[in-house]
């Protein structure tokens, strides 16, 4: 049975278990249930790509050719059932897409597909037909699924922010032109020689999005074992090192289980670009108390655009009080005679929960132990997709001058 473009592509680049899925697909009942679970629109997309050579050539004149055939859904299902041995690729695409976020798929699709195609796959609930988009992306270029795979990781993971210490003068050659597959592979080889732990840092690809450059690296970490049938296979867990560079290479967001190792690789890359030793330092998330007070007051009085405060947790006399209501201002006024003005003494606030883009986001507040005039503010980024995160941070930064960072992993790892 054909595996396109290759078994290595699916199992290594996309981490999709070909062998076990092939075993499922060869089961007639599983295969039949899968074909019947596919919607009419999805079936039309698959039918077009699998049988287009047999169709009228006029179909190719349309931006959305699968909408212009006269074959019924029942006929398509019957025809595809009879040529199931050519459908394993589609089955792999379907299984691959089960754990991928809609926003990651749509963002990649918007960057390469005609707008008419995107709009034709918008469903009544304002969601997109994920499977159809993935089928189309795969048949246009299988490697587009790597972009989905990578961007899905960006959407779902937390990043720590760093800035370049003593940034050098900008070079004439852009950083985007500097970073290439060959250059990164060379840097990773040097890094592995320095680490001397017998592990290979594997370059997995680039992703360019909204003036950011993402570099994806996979490296073994943590001894583990898996059960394969009745066999025990010993190996190592993969650690994905995702480096999110600003275009000028002066700032970076880093996602990895080993921050120190990820920083070393990041420093290597930027040092070669600037042709001098460079290092990134942690971005201090510190905001003046006065700015936080202004922001919280605006939230309580419902004057922050597109942000609706619905929960506030604060401490009073060593007791924590949580208000969960659409009218927090009224309750704070009632409590003020006994607990004091929370909006004035914002150092008492533990967290605030707000609704942004119809999603509930938690903002955590932590007073600086060394300087009581500053407060650190972090937010739960996992609930938002990449664009929503950027919009959320920009709104607070541009309006109130407050930098909020994600609840990233502890830097001590």
The low-pLDDT segments are: 54-62, 409-413
The largest sheet, given as strand count, sense and whether it forms a barrel, is: 7 strands, mixed
How much β-strand is present in the residues? Answer: 15-25%
Cα gyration radius (Å):
26 Å
Number of structural domains: 3
Written as H for each helix and E for each strand, in order along the chain, the element string is HHHHHHHHHHEHHEEEEHEEHEEHEEEHE
Shape: globular
Structural class: alpha+beta
Number of strand elements:
13
Q: Helical amount among residues, as a percent range?
A: 40-55%
**Tally of individual helices:** 16
Short précis:
With 413 residues, this protein is an alpha+beta fold. It contains 16 helices and 13 strands.
Q: Care to describe what's here?
A:
It is a single chain. The chain has 413 residues and is α+β, with helices and mostly antiparallel strands. The chain folds into three domains: 7-153, no CATH class; 160-282, no CATH class; 287-406, no CATH class. Helices cover 42% and strands 23% of the residues. It has 16 helices and 13 strands. It has helices at 7-13, 18-25, 28-37, 40-51, 73-82, 88-97, 102-112, 115-120, 130-140, 144-156, 175-178, 181-195, 259-274, 289-300, 328-339, 386-400, and strands at 160-164, 202-209, 212-228, 231-246, 251-255, 280-282, 287-288, 308-316, 319-324, 349-356, 359-367, 374-379, 405-406. The strands form two sheets. Strands 7, 8, 9, 10, 11, 12 and 13 form a seven-stranded mixed β-sheet that branches. It has a six-stranded antiparallel β-sheet with strand order 2-3-4-5-1-6. Strand 11 (359-367) and strand 12 form a beta hairpin. The chain is globular. The two termini are 45 Å apart. Residues 54-62 and 409-413 have low confidence and may be disordered.
């Amino acid at each position: 049975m054909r595996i396109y473009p290759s078994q290595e592509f699916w199992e290594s680049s996309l981490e999709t278990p070909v062998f076990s899925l092939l075993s499922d697909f060869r089961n007639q009942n599983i295969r039949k249930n899968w074909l019947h679970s596919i919607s009419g629109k999805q079936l039309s997309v698959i039918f077009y790509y699998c049988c287009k050579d047999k169709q009228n050539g006029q179909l190719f004149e349309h931006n959305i050719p699968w909408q212009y055939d006269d074959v019924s859904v029942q006929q398509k299902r019957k025809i595809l059932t009879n040529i199931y041995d050519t459908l394993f690729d589609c089955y792999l695409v379907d299984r691959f897409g089960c754990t991928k976020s809609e926003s990651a798929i749509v963002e990649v699709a918007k960057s390469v597909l005609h707008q008419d195609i995107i709009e034709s796959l918008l469903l009544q609930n304002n969601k997109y037909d994920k499977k159809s988009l993935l089928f189309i992306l795969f048949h246009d270029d299988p490697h587009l699924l790597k972009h989905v795979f990578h961007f899905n990781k960006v959407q779902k993971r937390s990043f720590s922010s760093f800035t370049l210490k003593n940034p050098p003068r900008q070079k004439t050659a852009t950083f985007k032109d500097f970073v290439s597959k060959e250059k990164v592979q060379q840097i990773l080889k040097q890094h592995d020689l320095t680490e001397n732990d017998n592990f290979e840092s594997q370059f997995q690809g680039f992703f360019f999005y909204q003036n950011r450059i993402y570099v994806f690296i996979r490296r073994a970490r943590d001894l583990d074992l898996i059960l394969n049938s009745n066999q025990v296979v010993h190996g190592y867990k993969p650690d994905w090192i995702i480096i999110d560079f600003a275009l000028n290479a002066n700032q970076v967001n880093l996602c990895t289980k080993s921050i120190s190792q990820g920083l070393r690789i990041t420093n290597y890359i930027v040092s070669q670009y600037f042709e001098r030793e460079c290092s990134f330092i942690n971005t201090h998330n510190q905001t003046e108390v006065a700015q936080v007070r202004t922001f919280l007051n605006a939230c309580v009085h419902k004057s922050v655009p597109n942000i609706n405060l619905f929960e506030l947790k604060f401490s009073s006399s060593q007791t924590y009080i949580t208000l969960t209501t659409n009218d927090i201002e009224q309750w704070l006024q009632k409590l003020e005679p006994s607990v004091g003005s929370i909006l004035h003494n914002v150092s008492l606030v533990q967290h605030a929960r707000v609704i942004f883009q119809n999603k509930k986001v938690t903002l955590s507040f932590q007073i600086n132990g060394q300087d009581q005039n500053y407060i650190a503010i972090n937010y739960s980024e996992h609930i938002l997709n990449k664009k929503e995160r950027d919009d959320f941070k920009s709104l607070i930064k541009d309006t109130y001058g407050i930098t909020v960072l994600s609840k990233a992993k502890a830097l001590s790892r």
